[in-house]
């Protein structure tokens, strides 16, 4: 027998680590939104420190920004079991009417048959309004539970989320004064996410107007951010990691804009890793169907992008600064190289950039991506 091949440095999770001082984890968003800092990666070897409101200066007429128009739902619920023990629920996905997959705390005590009565998020409820659930199954893929909700006659859980739920800030945002609307993009429309597509939090209406005046277009996809995006990778060999599926839609109007942009020499800039996954996931499904490039797609993807991936649609990206060892950091490494990402992150730490969801941003221009570099420049 021959020995199995050694894993390359890019395939080892431990090689996607970096040191981050706790005080650089942003607890509150910048006001106004477009006043955040922007690290512009403009070539294989150079970068520039800028401000997000100057984004039009770094893009070209004819470029296309693709944005994720998902909207964060009030997915965090609090209540108690029939024993009186307090519980916390994070809704992930509606499996069927009034039956949801959820993460639960404390997890080990949520056995099948456990009953939960939920508390209103604020104020008193009208007479006859209540929310109860029963644990009916365990989900091995997420370590979550399947909850069957009991509701007042004629209502769905969607009808009651605003009364019982709260917008779920990330777990590392521990002492924020941010309002729920500050964890939504200004173009959020399609309800379904449990986390915001944070690269889009920096945009303002004024900035969109300036981008339009320069001839920079925009288009939308929808990817509902779920456990797949933020679930930790638990294997050292990242090629063995299995992404949880997330729902997405790349509509026909967006596909036509992308094709038109490329035909005229414009560049496709994904606003966030969720947009990158959506566009590349749709392109993957297009290939499976034996068709060329990209067609509209509505469904789920479990695409995990890591170094060695062949990019099909995305040419550049706007993104926030991501957690160590995360699938998002690994996706970024597939675009510009792991060593380059970690070097940029070290400089961002030195320059006191603000990290994670409420933090600053990075713009990766197409000239800086691996697909536009020679083999010698990468190795």
UniProtKB/TrEMBL annotation:
Its main location: cytoplasm. It holds the Pfam family Queuosine_synth. The keyword S-adenosyl-L-methionine applies. It catalyses: 7-aminomethyl-7-carbaguanosine(34) in tRNA + S-adenosyl-L-methionine = epoxyqueuosine(34) in tRNA + adenine + L-methionine + 2 H(+). Its EC number is 2.4.99.17. Gene3D superfamilies: QueA-like. GO terms for cellular component: cytoplasm. It is an enzyme of class 2 (transferase). It comes from the Bacteria. It is found in: Cytoplasm. Keywords: Cytoplasm, Isomerase, Queuosine biosynthesis, S-adenosyl-L-methionine, Transferase. One of its GO terms (biological process) is tRNA queuosine(34) biosynthetic process. One of its GO terms (molecular function) is S-adenosylmethionine:tRNA ribosyltransferase-isomerase activity. Pathway: tRNA modification; tRNA-queuosine biosynthesis. Belongs to the QueA family. Transfers and isomerizes the ribose moiety from AdoMet to the 7-aminomethyl group of 7-deazaguanine (preQ1-tRNA) to give epoxyqueuosine (oQ-tRNA). Monomer. PANTHER family: S-ADENOSYLMETHIONINE:TRNA RIBOSYLTRANSFERASE-ISOMERASE (PTHR30307:SF0). This is S-adenosylmethionine:tRNA ribosyltransferase-isomerase. It comes from Hydrococcus rivularis NIES-593. The lineage of its organism: Bacteria, Bacillati, Cyanobacteriota, Cyanophyceae, Pleurocapsales.
């Amino acid at each position: 027998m021959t020995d199995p091949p050694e894993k390359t440095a890019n395939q080892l999770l431990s090689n996607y680590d970096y040191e981050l001082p706790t005080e650089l984890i942003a607890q509150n968003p910048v006001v106004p939104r477009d006043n955040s800092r922007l690290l512009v990666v403009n070539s294989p070897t150079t970068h520039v420190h800028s401000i997000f409101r100057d984004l039009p200066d770094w893009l070209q007429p004819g470029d296309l920004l693709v944005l994720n128009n998902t909207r964060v739902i009030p997915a965090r619920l609090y209540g108690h079991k029939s024993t009186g023990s307090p519980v916390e629920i994070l809704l992930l996905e509606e499996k069927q009417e009034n039956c949801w997959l959820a993460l639960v705390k404390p997890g080990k005590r949520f056995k099948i048959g456990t009953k939960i009565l939920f508390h209103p998020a604020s104020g008193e409820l009208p007479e006859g309004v209540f929310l109860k659930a029963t644990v009916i199954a365990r989900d091995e893929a997420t370590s979550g539970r399947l909850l069957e909700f009991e509701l007042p006659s004629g209502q769905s859980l969607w009808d009651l989320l605003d009364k019982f739920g709260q917008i779920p800030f990330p777990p590392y945002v521990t002492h924020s004064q941010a309002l729920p609307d500050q964890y939504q993009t200004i173009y959020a429309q399609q309800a379904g996410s449990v986390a915001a597509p944070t690269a889009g939090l920096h945009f303002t209406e004024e900035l969109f107007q300036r981008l339009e005046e320069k001839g920079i277009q925009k288009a939308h996809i929808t990817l509902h951010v779920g456990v797949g995006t933020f679930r930790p990778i638990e294997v050292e060999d990242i090629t063995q990691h299995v992404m949880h599926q997330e729902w997405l839609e790349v509509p026909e109007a967006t596909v036509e804009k992308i094709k038109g942009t490329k035909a005229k020499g414009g560049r496709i800039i994904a606003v966030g890793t969720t947009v990158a996954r959506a566009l590349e996931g749709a392109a993957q499904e297009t290939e499976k169907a034996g068709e060329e490039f990209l067609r509209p797609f509505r469904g789920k993807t479990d695409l995990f992008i890591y170094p060695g991936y062949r990019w099909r649609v995305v040419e550049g990206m706007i993104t926030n600064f991501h957690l160590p060892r995360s699938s998002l950091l690994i996706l970024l490494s597939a675009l510009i190289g792991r060593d380059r990402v970690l070097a940029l992150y070290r400089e961002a730490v030195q320059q006191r950039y603000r990290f994670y969801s409420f933090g600053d941003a990075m713009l990766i221009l197409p000239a800086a991506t691996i697909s536009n570099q020679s083999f010698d420049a990468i190795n």
